[in-house]
Amino acid sequence: MDLQWRNFPLALTLAAAVVTPAFGQAVAPTLGPANSVSESAESIPDFSGFWVHPLPGFEPLASGPTALVNRSRRPNGTGDILKLAGDYTNPILKPEAAEVVRRHGELGLNGIGDPNPRNQCWPGGVPFVFTNGPTQLLQQPDKVIILYGYDQQVRRVRLNEPHPPQVTPSWYGDSVGHYEGDTLVVDTVGIKVGRYSMVDWYGTPHTEALHVVERYRLIDPEAAKDGFARDAKEHNVAQGMRNPNDRGKYLQLQFTVEDKGVFTMPWTATMTYGSGGRDPAAWLEQVCAENIKWYPFKDADVPLADKPDF
Question: Which of 252, 199, 188 has the alpha carbon at shortest distance from 226?
Fold first, then answer.
């Protein structure tokens, strides 16, 4: 159990964003049409194996609208994961969202813990769940299943299908995908807003209008250098996190987020994953609810059978 990660002071004050979406939510169109012709087996990239990335996750781009960074820095210049304080001055944030992030930062800088999906044993949602590694993509002819090691979270991506006209919001939303050459493109809408919902580890809220487009591709070490360099500016990267797989490749996820209720514009970031190998025995079970002490004297908000439910 990685209790040390769950004890980070993570702020969450989502009053500005906790809105229960209505059933039958209308959805945004996918990013481009899904492929109408099935890809040949030879053209589909092989994403097999486990992929790992250090916490807390996102790699901001060098320019353009991109993810928040931590205002709290270690002496070596990297973000201090023990004091999470998102940059609420980032122009992607609307004023109400910036205020939520600012309040989270105040708690983080003062070492005061606050709940988030990870330490409360709730579903992480997209894109927060991208940080819940290790990650595995199981590719099948009609779908891709994405597994996340922390709390056994699962996503299902239907291939070469559109979103339905109306989507009932769910924790991971409705995800449809297709291959564009060597890239898997996943389009997700209908992401449910719950008690601990947030986009990132800085408490950035989202609404039921959240729309995320993911692009997964295998890259060689030279192409991975840029992602690793940007990652190193934000995180102390653990040894071994930059290992290539047995084909000398890394997995890079580039994702774009838009939510007109929270953001002034769409923004993009990456996650550059190293290899965690292929041995299933290396996938350690991490169950949040088996140790619910997430902060001194505080229990996680896990449903407990302290009274009969019938």
Answer: 252
